[in-house]
What we know:
mainly beta
Amino acid sequence: QVQLVESGGGLVQAGGSLRLSCAASRSTRSFIAIGWFRQGSGKQREFVANINSGGITMYADSAKGRFTISRDNAKNTVYLEMNSLKPEDTAVYYCNAQTGPSRYWGQGTQVTVSS
């Protein structure tokens, strides 16, 4: 069983920055991919960014140029640095890890961007 614990959410003004953390119960390099999804109120959960076992990163169009995903292998932690935040980035952000056919989710962390 994989445990994922997110932290770093909060309230920020538009144009501000936040860094989310996802601490995994095992090496992040052991996953096919690990990254972030988000779900706004009344919306479907959507992909934000991920990093695969080889270190290749992928971003949703909405995140490109503003968000950066990275990982600290020694801490088994993945980060999402979010800059130039917009009110439409308001959502619960979930860490997600994929191992073969299985996906694991964290409990989520709320990000609220005020205008």
